Amino acid sequence: MEKRIAVMGIIVENTESVDQLNNLLHEYGPYIIGRMGIPYREQNIHIISIAMDAPQDEISALSGKIGRLAGISVKTAYSKVVH
Description:
Blueprint: E1 4-12, H1 18-27, E2 32-40, E3 45-54, H2 56-67, E4 72-82
Antiparallel strand pairs: 1-3, 1-4, 2-3
């Protein structure tokens, strides 16, 4: 199965959805290369970036599930390289 490298940018505005987000990230853990979280306390939001190496449909599935969580926004950028 062809895999792609991708980066997800996640903004958490509703901390009540963090447990659901962490459960999803744990579920897709085998595909996650790295994760960085930055609390932006002055604006009461959290910024998370996720680097992934996975089949495109797995990346899209995770992005869609995250995007349905209340108070959480996500955008995904894909590399052009398929391996």
